[in-house]
Design a protein that fits this description.
The chain contains 19 helices and three strands. It is mainly alpha-helical. The protein has two domains: 128 residues; 322 residues, Orthogonal Bundle (Neurolysin, domain 3). The chain is globular, with a radius of gyration of 22 Å.
Length: 498
Amino acid sequence: MTTFKNNKPFRDKTVLEILDKYKDLWALSHVSAVSGWDLETYMPEQGASARGMALGRISTIYQKIFLDSEFVSLIHKAGCQNGLTDAERGVVRILAHSLKFYEKVPPKFLEDFSLLTSQATVVWREAKAKNDSKLFEPYLTKIFGMNKELAEYLTYKDSPYDALLDQFEKGLTAAEVESFFNEVREPLKVLLTKITSSKKYLKVNQLENAKYDKVKMADLNAKVLKYLWPEFGKNFRLDISTHPFTTSFASSDTRITTWYHDTDFGRSLLAVIHEFGHALYDLQCDKGLDMTPVGGGSSLVIHESQSRFWENFVGRSEGFIKKFLPDMQKVVGKNITSSEVYSYFNKVAPGNLRVEADEVTYHFHIMLRFEIEKGIIEGALKVKDIPEIWNAKMKEYLGIIPKTDSEGALQDIHWSMGSVGYFPTYSLGTFLGGQWEDKVAKSGTKSYKDIEKMLQKFVHRYGSIYTLEKLLTKNKMKFDSSVNLKYLEEKYLRIYNL
């Protein structure tokens, strides 16, 4: 699907000059992304220090090129011009946002932060494997400290946490996140109480403890991806990492990862489908946006709405389960039924792990992380107390306490990567995903290929041209948490006979 007439989104002379110079920045980003992907997948652990130094140097070189006076003048010039296309305005908007960042943040800070996070990611893996939060604590203390410093460089109006949220979703504030959670917290609590009081409620589904064949699981994952994206293996690949993630180097080269365990095959499969949603966004971006600031998705709320759409509305669906049931039977080595798998994939019960959380309890995991991040950045909480605070909030929200820090405060990779302010986009994106599902359902679209085409039409082809608000307006929508709340209530009251 082509978004632009003659597939030429850029016509303005000044913008074309910008894009020509931007290719050097794109090339550096491309190489850095490949290096970061390798760090998470195949790089030997002892390579972390050298990799961190290399990435740190690249970040300062990137900043130096970005702040070239001629390039900066072109950005300002384009920002004052009338008659730009939507794509051109998107380029100016994104570069102006980045310019603010690079003008305010010292090169030494960028270099030190890159080195720190490269090393911290490796230490986090070890700490998680050993269940040793003290091992990771010095790195986490530095990461939060540098994020506080970053907020001061970037400046903010109300909370320093706003400056960090803005790096993942432009304009998002702590007050807006709190308002959203205040809207959904009580309805989710009421629904969870109804479910846990149901006669059909089970804390553990038998398939969670079923051992599976990892080779056959890998075959199933590949088969699912090939079915959903026939070009899988050509412009899209799957690997293994400690924590599933997606990275895209170009619309013709996107990578995702998953993980494998001894039991609970849904962890691996649903992670694959979640990451496929991210990958699809980049794979279906209009080719005319390649090597530009608006190629691929930049809004994390939009991005997470895509991944959570595929995970929740496709991966957990009866149709999907029936399609791949024979393969699932091979994976676990037993004759399981589609209804058993459906119950397994859609079981609601408080658990320790965010990535395994069901559609109802998932958001309490995000609330917990948001409150901890905001508290530390604003100075109300301390990093050394995170495990204790974490467990207290898990008890408050879900009535359980993790037995280990590996299942508690050490479970996510995000902080080791320096990403403070990312987590709220998961909940916001999940609720927005419910609105995309509502739009798809009302269209009568059934096949996965047609769903992909619809999402390309609604979202993917535009890359990062539009802000979240403008993309929704373009689709005659506005963010509405009630849509997903209604879906959750109807689905789970039906499943639990309430």
